[in-house]
Specification:
The complex is a heterodimer of chains A (110) and B (118).
Chain A (H helix, E strand, L loop, with lengths): L3 E4 L2 E5 L4 E7 L5 E7 L5 E7 L2 E5 L2 E6 L4 E6 L8 E10 L3 E5 L3 E6 L1
Chain B lengths: L3 E4 L2 E4 L4 E8 L5 E7 L6 E7 L2 E5 L6 E7 L2 E7 L7 E8 L13 E2 L3 E5 L1
Parallel strand pairs in B: 2-11
Antiparallel strand pairs in B: 1-3, 3-8, 4-5, 4-9, 5-6, 7-8, 9-10, 9-11
Classes of the chains: A mainly beta (110), B mainly beta (118).
Chain lengths: 110, 118
């Protein structure tokens, strides 16, 4: 079982819809990252969370440490939001470890 | 300047070639990372440099040799690669802390180098 599970794997939405992508993890973490990757490769860091909620424009990320769960919400979705969204958890133990989820492919149709 | 640059954008090499990938940032970050990403898979961490010292090597084969000549520059030297090493190689940087990337920092990613090994 992967340490980081994302759902759904694929998501198709109509422009304007509210979107939620979920991330669950099975270990204690130091922080959780949400990343966006467009076709062609470039990755953009959207959020880094260790507790609570963060908002940036139409994007909102929440994390529940007790339940080991995070969500990424996109309000008023737009075709330019089409990308792969990746959750990654950061673990500090004797070594640093960054484990990625498999990503969620979001397609927003006009 | 919040940009991480990578060169070249694309690289095709034979199994006997020696080539290098370059990554540069001018944000004053002291932690730099190399990732490998195969098609339709998430990135995998390869190396982490902190204050120009290699702090993490995720059991990467020796045909990949990282180098951090100064705080702004990170190289990945490639030698005797295999076709299965074909992938997108991503560099990232973060502010970092002393000794290792002990602060949980936002990572800034470069656009990647798409490597094809023939």
């Amino acid at each position: 079982k992967n340490e980081v599970e994302q759902s759904p794997q694929n998501l198709t939405a109509q422009e304007g819809e509210f979107i939620t992508i979920n991330c669950s993890y099975s270990v204690g973490i130091s922080a959780l990252h949400w990343l966006q990757q467009h076709p062609g490769g470039g990755i953009v860091s959207l959020f880094m969370l260790s507790s609570g909620k963060k908002k940036h424009g139409r994007l909102i990320a929440t994390i529940n440490i007790q339940e080991k769960h995070s969500s990424l919400h996109i309000t008023a979705s737009h075709p330019r939001d089409s990308a792969v969204y990746i959750c990654a958890v950061e673990i500090w133990g004797s070594n640093y470890k960054l484990t990625f989820g498999k990503g969620t492919l979001l397609t927003v149709n006009p | 300047d919040t940009e991480v640059t990578q060169t070249p954008k694309h690289l095709v090499m034979g199994m006997t070639n020696k080539k290098s990938l370059k990554c540069e940032q001018h944000m004053g970050h002291r932690a730099m990372y190399w990732y490998k990403q195969k098609a339709k898979k998430p990135p995998e961490l390869m190396f982490v440099y902190s204050y120009e010292k290699l702090s993490i090597n995720e059991s990467v084969p020796s045909r990949f040799s990282p180098e951090c000549p100064n705080s702004s520059l990170l190289n990945l030297h490639l030698h005797a690669l295999q076709p299965e090493d074909s992938a997108l190689y991503l560099c990232a940087s973060s502010q970092g802390g002393s000794g290792s990337p002990r602060r949980t920092d936002t990572q800034y990613f470069g656009p990647g180098t798409r490597l094809t090994v023939l």
